[in-house]
Design a protein that fits this description.
single chain, 87 residues, mainly alpha, 2 helices, 0% strand
Amino acid sequence: MPGSGAPREAASAGSRRGADRRRTARRAPQQRAGRLYDALPGPKELVGFSAAEGAHLHCEPMGRARFEQRVFDWPAARLASGPPVRD
């Protein structure tokens, strides 16, 4: 039948565009985090959170303990060594 493949092809193309938009949306926060990281002066560490840890979504809702451990361990390690030595 002529034209019978067109709707299927259009739906397939639409689903590919949707998948591309979702992939781009997931990368956008990582790109913004990288720009912020680059703009910050001083010692710093960019840490990612994974789905396996339950901490991959915005605000790490399923992995708050992992988030808090990483966030609060970083300054604690720096404060434990005392103030920086100045020349």
